[in-house]
Amino acid sequence: MNTNIKSGPTLAKWILFTSLGWIIGFILALLIAEPLGKIELDFFGLGLGIATGIGLMQWLALREYTTINSKWLWLTSAGMGGTFLMFDILIVILKALGFKYKMDGAPAMIAITLSIAVGSYVTGLLQNKFLIKNNYINTNGWILYSFLAWTTCSLFISVYFICMDNVFHIAFTSAGKIMNIFAFLLIGPILGFISGKKILTVLNIPKNSIDD
Questions:
Q1: Tally of CB atoms within 10 A around 157
Q2: Cβ atoms of 120 and 47 closer than 8 Å
Q3: CA–CA distance from 108 to each of 34, 37, 42, 75, 161 (Å)?
Q4: If DSSP states are collapsed to H, E and C, what string results for the chain?
Q5: How far apart are CA 204 and CA 212, in angstroms?
Q6: What percent of the chain has pLDDT over 70?
């Protein structure tokens, strides 16, 4: 048995770094979404920024383990960013075909949730195929956990803001703004907890952990 191999970060560390990644990613999204919006790529900027922030911080949590390298960041950005890019292209095509729709409020939240659901599946698939599966044995279920983690967060925030705005009508009151900040800060820990429960199990059994 090779005793030099570390199993992985603690769940608390994974949640912390994922939460920091969510905040950093949101800031990145705000910075790049507006200029990209000028060329009809608003959602691409949103997806790319958030995925880059989260992918970066998760990689920093994993980098001391030699089987996880910077591919984690690039695969996360490619999976989520690429999916949102396809979503923007679809919107451009629909506009060109004369479809009339209003992309704000509940319709926008639903569209973003569907994009995140697809993007999270693609992200998990890329991570599993090009990184995790090559280095670890217990990879079954990672794609599902990636999907569940991202989609749960998206559903949570979508339902929350739809209810706050359309049901309780307090989204922009003083109390509502405080609650909005709290709900925003919950996203990172939720994402980190759900994904962390699986990734730490995966990291427990590297392929090179057993020497004959």
A1: 20
A2: no
A3: 16, 15, 12, 25, 11
A4: CCCCCCCCCCHHHHHHHHHHHHHHHHHHHHHHHHHHHCCCCHHHHHHHHHHHHHHHHHHHHHCCCCCCCCHHHHHHHHHHHHHHHHHHHHHHHHHHCCCCCCCCHHHHHHHHHHHHHHHHHHHHHHHHHHHHHHHECCCCCHHHHHHHHHHHHHHHHHHHHHHHHHHCCCCCCHHHHHHHHHHHHHHHHHHHHHHHHHHHHHHCCEHHHCCC
A5: 18
A6: 88
Mean pLDDT throughout 146-159?
Answer: 94
Pick the closest to residue 53 from 33, 31, 73 (CA basis).
73
Mean pLDDT across the chain: 87
As a whole number of Å, the CA-based R_g of the chain is: 18
Give me the pLDDT at residue 154, please. 93
pTM: 0.89
